[in-house]
Amino acid sequence: MKIFNFHLMPYAHADLDAIKRLGTSWMTYPNSYYDPKKGADLYHEYLDQLEFADELGFDGVAVNEHHQTAYGLMPTPGVLAGALARRIKNGKLAILGRALPLVNNPLVIAEEFAILDNLTRGNFIAGFVRGIGVEYHTMGMNPAESQARFNEAHDLIIQAWTRPGPFAFEGKYYKFKYVNPWPRPYQDPHPPIFTPSSGSLSTIRWSAQRRYTYCQTLAPIAAVAQTFKLYREEAEKAGYQATPDQLAWSNAIYVAESDEKALRDVRPHLEAYANEFLTRNPVMMAPPGYTSVESIKRMRAIKGFMGQRSTAEDMIARGIVIVGSPNTVREKLAAYQDMAGFGISLTKTQFGTMPHKMVQENQIAIAREVLPYFKDRLPQPVKAAAE
Amino acid sequence: MTQPVVTHLDLCGTRVKLMRAGQGAPLLFLRGADASDDWRPFLDDLAGRFDVIVPEHPGFGGEVRPDWLDRIADYANYYLDVIDALGLDHVHLAGHGMGGWIAAELASRSTRKLASLTLVDAQGIYVDGVDTIDTFLRTEEDGVRDLFHDEKLGAAELERRLTPETEDVRLNNQVVIAQTTWQPRGYDPHLRKWLHRIDIPTLIVWGENDRLLPQAYAHDWGRLIPGARVEIVANCGHVPQIEKPAEFVRLVEAFAKAQRVAA
Fold first, then answer.
1. A229-267 confidence digits (pLDDT tens)
2. Residue A219 belongs to domain with CATH number
3. Contact assignment for A293 to B177 by CB distance below 8 Å
4. CA-CA distance, B257 to B27, in Å (whole number)?
5. Global ipTM
6. CATH code assigned at B30
7. Residue A271 falls within a domain, yes or no?
8. Domain hosting residue A131, numbered range
């Protein structure tokens, strides 16, 4: 298993009471709550954490993109990846991912990713996403065009990386007389492509057909296993057998001396993450056309669920996160790998309000107590198989 | 109540459903984004004096979204074709909300077949400094309540509109509404440049208490379309034809009559 250190770079000093009062940490949570002095310190701490992860032997580091939220301070992840590109010496550097439909000119993403691939001498991983629903509000893009723009932007970027330029591109949404980006990607034909998603069947199918690595965003392990099973089935339909390195699970891990101490340490930060940083108005999250009518109906049916606060115990029990002693964490991660069949773990070591020192201790504990045991580990067949 | 005749017209690869009732000069009524499929009393009243034609906008009502539909202007061109295909002339064109936007786009292109234009709490332009409701951030329930000034009427409409049987249609309608009105939100910056081309008698009808598009919008429409007359309906929200049907019908009829007298 490859274990990446994944960062959301939350604004850890967010006013949690204000978020509770406003019912959102996204879009309408006023940016007057952002203090640039504290924010600047956070950026440096977070970048230090990712550089530290590389020194500690994580297989890679990853950042992502969100807009207008305390949940994550990386609206242009290329800037953060650029800051990391000359410091990450051992592992991969990944942006998981860049939201293709949110820009008017996807060639800027082809260019940005190609630069990063050159800077890292071919250690860059390119993530493509649609962005979450609320981002169609904040970026002023049409949610009803989200899927079609994503598909077309993807085609344009791949062509920009693989077809000798200059050539003309005439799509429905993007039209360019000249496509001839400099630099070209370092990797041939282009960086590996990861496609993070919350589990929509259309994305799973699309990703499997192209042999892209599918990343499942935060979800209970049973749902993750189900999603990865769908990917393997779609791969079979496409005429090949998916390998574990095509499946990545996005999680959070915290290790301490004992299960009790780990739970005690992690509770306020994990609960702030799940209940405040993730808080958003459901209407904001599901603009028409972004989500299928069927999914909206499913979401409406479980709307009571959205209102419930998550506890740390609940998130641990459902296998959304792994928290505990070294032994507990190793056992669970192995069991989850066997159950879901993934070959990559995208692991947050910081979440919510967790402070710098605690994150570093967690990173050291994971590097010492977890990474060595999973170095070449593949999913093992389980007796009472989840499938 | 009159039972409208339902017909279908095949045009540009799209089948459009038309409800039609009454006799007299043709009145093409373009519904707004809150379009429900039923034939409301105000249409009955109008049918007493006009040949009322109400189309279901292509892509609405559970129909497949046409390939040609990207923006409101596409609807305008489509309805110009519909007018021709039906062989209509001297048409009184009226539109509410999103339908008003379509009507204004249509009339800015050509008034050749039109006798008059009536815009009712119409979308389509932007007025700086006026607070509007972002309908895309409202729950479906709030979205219905927002339409009406009278809360009791809002509650009654909530009950009749948000039924489980119509949920799929409503959700699919929302996708078409987002497709055509999301960005910029509810207007086309290019429309205002050409409204001076509208050279037919124009009536702007507006609910005094419209929270979606406050009255300031009515007056801006009135300034932008040469000679347009603005009528504000008192104690009324975004949908005068449902909240104040008698007054709405009176205004439309009086306006048409004045045109005949003038002619």
1. 999 999 999 999 999 999 999 999 999 999 999 999 999
2. 3.20.20.30
3. no
4. 13
5. 0.94
6. 3.40.50.1820
7. yes
8. 2-374
